[in-house]
Amino acid sequence: MSRTYKLGVIGLGEGRSIISAALQSERWELINVCDLNEEVCRARREEFGLSRYTLRYEDLLNDPEIEVIAIYTPDQLHGRHILQALEAGKHVIVTKPLLHSLEEASSLLEAAKKAGKLVFVGQSSRFFEPMIHQRKDYEAGRHGEVDTVEAYYISDARWFLKRDWSRQKGFSWMHNFLSHPVDLAKWYLPGIEEVFGYGHSSRVNQEYGLSSPDTLRFLLRDGEGRIAQVSGSYTKPTLRQVDSGIGCTLRGSAGTSRALYSKLLYHTHFAGEGPMTHSYEEKHPYYFRFEGESHHAGEYQNYIEYFADCLDRGETPKPDLLEGIHTLAVMAAMERSRETGRPVKVDELLREYSLPVQGGETDAYANRA
Ligand SMILES: NC(=O)c1ccc[n+]([C@@H]2O[C@H](COP(=O)([O-])OP(=O)(O)OC[C@H]3O[C@@H](n4cnc5c(N)ncnc54)[C@H](O)[C@@H]3O)[C@@H](O)[C@H]2O)c1
C-alpha cells in the first residue's frame, strides 16, 4: 500500500534540493527543516514558502510526526547526526559520503540494528536519468558479460573550497567527490577484492592549504578478475565542451554503454544495433531546478520516491548502511594503496575495523520498518 511519509531535513545548503524534491513529490510531506545558520533558514523559508524552521536539531529529533530525517550537513558531521536520528527512532537518508572514515561505522551498524531503522545513502548519481537507463539495460542483460567499468568524476571544483569545512580535518576529495565514481564502479562490480592507485596533490590544491590529493587514479579488481578504473581531478580547468562531470562506461560481451552527468546523454552500442545516442534534454528542468548544474533536486526526488516505494514494500533501499560501509572500505583501501604504493585488499580494512566483510549476508543489519 502506498502512503505519504513525513520528512525533516538538517543542513540547508544542498539541503535546498531535497526541500524542492519533497515539496514536488506526492509521496512526501515536509514537516520541518533545520540549520545552525538562521540566514540560510530564512532564505529557504522565503524561497519555498515554508511555515517554519528551527536552529536546533533536537526539534527534529523530538518531533513525533517526523518519520525520516534527511542529513545534508558537512561530511564530518554525518556520523553524529545519523547516530542521533537512529537513537530518536527515525529512518535516515544521508547524502554522500556516508561517513568520512570507517571509524564510526561499527557504532552505526549497532545503532541501526538496535533501533530497527533504515539508513539509506543518497548516492545521487545512481538516480540521474542516463544512469537509470544504463542500469535498466544492464539488468536486462543487454551488455552480456560486463568485465570492465570505467567511472570518473572530473570537475573544476575550486568553488567548493569556499566552504569552511572543506578546508578542515576530515574533508577529502576522495570522500566528497570520488565517492560518486567509486559507488558506480562498486554498483556494477560489488565484490571488489583489491585496489591499487596513485594520488597527487597539485600546486593549486596546496595553495588552498589542502594536503588531500586532488588528482586520483585507481584500478579496482573483483574476485572474478573483472576490472574497474576510477579517476578524479578537482582543481584544474576542464574541457566542458567534450567532457561531462561524471561518466560511467560498461563494456560487456554483447554491448558497451556510457552514461553521463550532467549532459543528460546516454551512448550505447548493443549487439544487433548500431551505435546510438539517447538524449534526455527535455528533462533538464526536472533535474536542474536552480541556477547552474551543481544542484541535484531531480535525483533526490527520484531517490526519495524509491525510498518511499521500498518502505511501502518492506524492502531495504540500496545502498543501505552496510553497502555504504563496504564502499567506504574500498576508499580506505585506495587511500592505503596511495600511501604505501602497494595493492591493498578491501576485506583487510574491514577486519581491522571489526566490520562484516563483503559477500556475507548483506541484509544482516538491514532492519525493517
Ligand atoms: N550530489 C550530491 O548528492 C551532493 C551535492 C552537493 C553536496 N552534497 C553533500 O551535502 C553535504 C553538505 O554540502 P553543502 O554543499 O550543502 O555544504 P554547505 O556548507 O553549503 O551546507 C551545509 C549546511 O549545514 C549547516 N550546518 C553545519 N553544521 C550544522 C549543525 N550541527 N546543525 C545544523 N546545521 C548545520 C551549515 O550551516 C550549512 O548551511 C555534504 O556532505 C556534501 O557532500 C551532496
TrEMBL record:
Domain Gfo/Idh/MocA-like oxidoreductase N-terminal, by residue range, is 6-122
Q: Does the keyword Calcium apply?
A: no
Q: Which residues form the Gfo/Idh/MocA-like oxidoreductase C-terminal domain?
A: 164-346
User: What does the UniProt keyword field contain?
Assistant: Oxidoreductase
Does the keyword Oxidoreductase belong to this entry?
Answer: yes
A Pfam family this chain is assigned to: GFO_IDH_MocA_C
Origin: domain of life: Bacteria
Which PANTHER family does the record associate with it? BCDNA.GH03377 (PTHR43818:SF11)
Q: What is this protein called?
A: Gfo/Idh/MocA family oxidoreductase
